[in-house]
Amino acid sequence: MQILITGAAGFIGQLLAKELLNDPSYQLILTDINEPPVPKGVKYPQNARAVTADLLKGADAIVDKSLDAVYAFHGIMSSGSEANFDLGMSVNVDATRNLFEALRHTCPGVRVIYASSQAVYGQPLPEVVNDSVIPTPQSSYGAEKIICETLINEYTRRGFINGFTLRFPTISVRPGLPTAAASSFLSGMIREPLDGKACAIPVEDRSFKSWLCSPKTLVHNLILSLSLAADSVPPHIRQINVPGICVTVQEMMDALEKVGGKDKLAFLTEKEDPSLRPILDSWPTRFDNTQAISLGFKRDSSFEQAVRDYQLEVSQQK
């Protein structure tokens, strides 16, 4: 299977590429604004080709008739989009439309798996969000995502592509460095203390809730998306809320203590950030994932297990 991954230098692109390159049946084209690396330690690195491409200038260089599927992961994160409206609209919307247009004309009907976000929702929201709740984003990032979701629906309805929109929970625990995402601290407050580094939590309310998914579970659900039946969701309603779990800041701190030891809590500080709080408060914290579960998607068993999985992954890389 020939698969294109855009935004392949990013965390999710690298995570997925690492998994796919341990299976000889996948051939990957990895593309980003800067040449993306082929993940280290995979069984079949020769099955990946890295290509530098600026989607704002078009996607013809990375799109050809051999493609079986496309993962669209490129984009500017939430805080970055809010800080720079023009950049967010260009990268998150214009570049995505360019990609869809190239796919439409070169390999019509190709499967496209688009990475969206719970940020498409805004307040007021019911206690539990189901698939019938209408998205009303309260951030530039969320607005840009809902624009692209509409493009996925329309291009699929017209038969131009076979698109699926996956609305991700916040992914935690992410390895690597902090990002420009408003939710970055939800990985940092675990990752940094386990590495002996400080992390500032931008909310002082330990009952603050977040909807989370581990990297391990995310990869399972991304690969599952390759085999979803084309008619598993209506042709004009392609969005799927990917399963997550609701976790409070206190529960995350408890998991850190259980896995890393009580001394790790000393690396955390709590100080309200008024610039981030409106974005964080706009996001839903609990979903009814009946549709996704029925399609074969899975959720994490607990946040503590997600922390243990992260700790094991880090130890294996040393």
From TrEMBL:
Annotated SUPFAM superfamilies: NAD(P)-binding Rossmann-fold domains
GO function terms (MF aspect): oxidoreductase activity
Domain NAD-dependent epimerase/dehydratase: from-to ranges: 3-200
Record keywords: Carbohydrate metabolism, NADP
Pfam families with a match to the protein in the record: Epimerase
Name under which the protein is recorded: NAD-dependent epimerase/dehydratase domain-containing protein
Species per Swiss-Prot/TrEMBL record: Aspergillus nanangensis
Lineage, highest ranks first: Eukaryota, Fungi, Dikarya, Ascomycota, Pezizomycotina
